[in-house]
Amino acid sequence: MTISGLLGFIFILVFFGLMMLFLASGHEQPDQHLRRIAAFGKLRRAIGLAVEAGSRLHVSIGRGGVVGPQSAAAFVGLSMLEQLAGSASTGDKPPVATAGDGTLAILAQDTMRATYKSIGLGDQFEMTSGQVTGLTPFSYAAGVLPLVSDNKTGASILAGHFGSEVALITDAGERSDNLTLAGTDSLPGQAVLYATAHEPLIGEELYAGGAYLNAGPMHEASLRTQDAFRWALVTVILFGTVAALFGLDETISQIIGNLL
Amino acid sequence: MKTRLRAPLPVAIAIGFGLVVLLGYFFGENADGQLTTLGILRDYFLQGAVVVGGVALLVGVFNLASVHAQKIKRGEGAVYSFITLLALALTLLVGFYDLTMTYIQGAPGLYWTRWIFENIQLPVETSLMAVLLVSLTFAATRLLSRRLDLMSGVFVAFVLVLLITAIPVISTRVGLLAEVREWILSVPAVGGARGILLGVALGIVATGIRILTGADRPYGG
């Protein structure tokens, strides 16, 4: 066992403990701790409009794969897909999920099949509800374009790992006048989305998707835990800045080095 | 917490394997740097995941083919779907031919596969990149008309300053502009990027814990 391994494990344990604490304390009014994110309000409205107008929702979960840190963004996309598939299942056209990775497409199909089955609409599921549109960044984006541009698509939700090629998709959404809500874990992708998407999700907003779409109390508890840790990090960064200002940073580094 | 399990067995397997890999990550090596049992199990499971990912690539290709075959059947953009399937079949044939020749000659060749990538795939993707440049420029000009607020103004102002100061003639003649560019890139841009990355990292940890506890089940369980 190494010290860094032990510290990492303690970090995860504290994170998990706080999540459980917030989960236990947040049952009375589940939404009271959520700040307003305009994108999710518009998404709820878009779901309602899509069901009324008989158009479909398109959910893109990116091309990140399931091995590596990029998988987290894709898993958030899958959580959002589960909620959206349930909400929009009463519409004429069932939602369609696209992915740039075979494993993610299988998971998307599985998520939609399980969601439909759980609400008694198992016969509505089609294997083409989860599609691989391309296996390289640009072929993936090019494959998604017809779906986004289609006038039967009411809104596109992009939640997963995307690079700058996502601009091609959001541009198609802009031209067809469909709502495009998009978030990614990649920094260049976020910069591009800020300029091109109707409703960009910046930084941790992507990971809040489940909580805002009522995916369960655990999502809200994890969001509150992230907030608590963010404040702790802000405090540490400010403390470090003040310490550096007074020339104490080297002394503190030495003390921490000796402790470790 | 009320957790409704649709398939308890996959959930139990996913949680079990996830916990072993997580613990293997923290306690996979002892103080001497040698792999512990947890470390060996972690590597074994991760190698398995990579193999499954490789097989899933094949499944992805079949999925792509079946979606386009159905589009041809329904007559939706049938021409494009037909071209896609034809290109897929031809590339597969060329790949098999190259592999066979490699096996017969006993030396890696893959001449025609490389030819396809260098003369078809690469130019097409490069042209898409050029289209991307136009899309981004157009989007930046539309940003202020779509979302007129302080942050959009700051975004556009910084983009303009960075684009102008990237022109060598300007940055070499006006030293102050080069310094401004350097300051933007090394102070606000790096600070903002770090802030966003910290938020993303916390989000990744939260997502991982939700999956490990079975609150999120991206496998339909």
Tell me what the structure shows.
Chain A has 260 residues and is of the alpha/beta class. Chain A folds into two domains: 180 residues, Rossmann fold, CATH 3.40.50; 45 residues. Chain A has ten helices and six strands; from the N terminus they run ααβαβαβαβαβαβααα. The longest helix of chain A has 29 residues. Chain A is globular. The model of chain A has no long low-confidence stretch (mean pLDDT 87). With 221 residues, chain B is an all-alpha fold. Chain B is built from eight helices and no strands. In chain B, helix 1 packs across helix 2 and helix 3 runs antiparallel to helix 4. The longest helix of chain B has 38 residues. The two termini of chain B are 17 Å apart. At the A-B interface, helix 1, helix 3, helix 4, strand 3 and helix 5 of A face helix 1, helix 2, helix 4 and helix 8 of B.
Mean pLDDT reading of chain A = 87
Named CATH architecture of the largest domain in chain A: 3-Layer(aba) Sandwich
Give the helix proportion of chain B (percent range).
over 70%
Largest inter-chain interface?
Answer: A-B, 85 and 70 residues
Q: What coarse outline of chain B follows from CA principal-axis ratios?
A: extended
Counted by DSSP, the helix tally of chain B is 8
Choose one word for the global shape of chain A.
Answer: globular
Strand order of the main beta sheet of chain A, please?
3-2-1-4-5-6
Radius of gyration of chain A: 21 Å
* Radius of gyration from the alpha-carbon trace of chain B, in angstroms: 26 Å
Beta-strand fraction estimate of chain A: 5-15%
Let me know the average pLDDT of chain B. 86
Largest sheet of chain B: none
How much helix, percentage-wise, in residues of chain A? Answer: 55-70%
Q: What is the structural class of chain B? A: mainly alpha
